[in-house]
Amino acid sequence: DKVFVEDLKSTNGTLVNELAVERAELHDGDFVKVGASVFKFTVRSSLEASFHEELYKLSTVDNLTGAYNKRHFLAVLERELSRAERYRRFLTLALFDIDFFKKVNDNFGHLAGDEVLRELSRLVKGSVRKNDTFARYGGEEFALVLPEIGKEDSFDVCEKLRKKVEGHSFSHEGKDIPVTISIGYCTLLPGTSGVKPNAIIEAADSKLYDAKKSGRNKVCC
After folding, report:
1. I need a surface site. Which of 61, 126, 149, 221 has the fewest CB within 10 A?
2. Model confidence over 79-89: pLDDT tens digits?
């Protein structure tokens, strides 16, 4: 019937309502500070929990594709860059978009274009790991944050995704729609420090440009 928080000799200590504690009982509305993060402890019904989960979903998910939105993606990327630097681990950012997407809209209509975006999102979400982050970066461009994956393994992930999209049957109202994607990615090596989100985004975007410039439907890193 009670909930406690216990500090296990952490570096920065644990605070409940701004008071340092070793062990403390939590009550509804208490604020718990761990490092730079602050959490609010609440006791609520399943209906209230569902309401808050829906609010969170609306603030983080793109409602057309079901992928995370750009705002959430940028927050995750900043967090994962810090984590990769701190623990000296690999981190890959991949950017990809649909080749000649304007032709899809022009030839089949915008409803068909929306359906392609949704179907592509379903394909990608079914192909990535739980700790990967898939987001709609803007328009027909998407992003993948791949923690703890090196350059070669990242290529395998991206190439597998490229082939999966190329081999998938996209259609709208009985009409087949040919779809391919171009992918550019950048891998942060263990021990790299001081990399800002904009820098790795620009690096991946540059490789995406190379993939499109060299014929599309390919992966560049």
Report:
1. 126
2. 999 999 999 99
- DSSP output for 121-153: HHHHHTTS-TT-EEEEEETTEEEEEEET--HHH
* Residue 178: strand, helix, or coil: coil
Phi and psi at residue 199, to the nearest 5°: -70, -45
Q: Tell whether the torsion through CA atoms of 204, 84, 160 and 108 is positive or negative.
A: negative
pLDDT tens digit sequence for 157-192: 999 999 999 999 999 999 999 999 999 999 999 999
Beta strands 219-220 and 170-172 are: unpaired
Asked if 200 and 93 touch (Cβ cutoff 8 Å), the reply is yes
Question: What is the rounded CA–CA span in Å between residue 101 and residue 116?
Answer: 9
Distance (Å, whole) CA 103 – CA 108: 8
Residue among 80, 115, 119, 140 flagged as catalytic? 140
Q: How far is CA 75 from CA 23, 53, 143, 164, 182, in A?
A: 31, 18, 13, 28, 24
CA atoms lying within 13 Å on the CB side of residue 124: 32
* Strand pairing class (219-220; 181-188): parallel
In the structure encoding, which two tokens stand for residue 83, read together? 């984590």
